[in-house]
Amino acid sequence: MTNPTSPTVSIRLFTIKEAAEVLKIPASWLYERTRRNAIPCHRLGKYLRFTEQDLANILAAQDPGPQPRQ
Asked: How many independent structural domains does the chain possess?
């Protein structure tokens, strides 16, 4: 018998350090933007966490930079 209050979906949450490693950016960049509410994140008390979707949204919102000439 399963417990109806147990989570049925597992959500991967990344710490600031883990998210910075995945995105290949400094953790300070993430801290600064979360303070300005400029990027999506989840606040769990004093802790910040990111879902995979948050990381994808952060990447999608960034300027892709100059495109190579063709």
From this structure: 1
- Rounded to 10°, the helix 16-23/52-61 angle is 50
Q: Token pair for residue 58?
A: 């952060």
Burial group, residue 23, by CB count within 10 angstroms (0-12, 13-18, 19+):
middle
Residue positions counted in the chain: 70
Beta-bridged to residue 42, according to DSSP, are 49
Parent domain of 30: 16-61
Each residue's pLDDT tens digit, 28-64: 999 999 999 999 999 999 999 999 999 999 999 987 7
Domain assignment of residue 23, yes or no: yes
Tell me which H or E stretch contains 54: helix 52-61
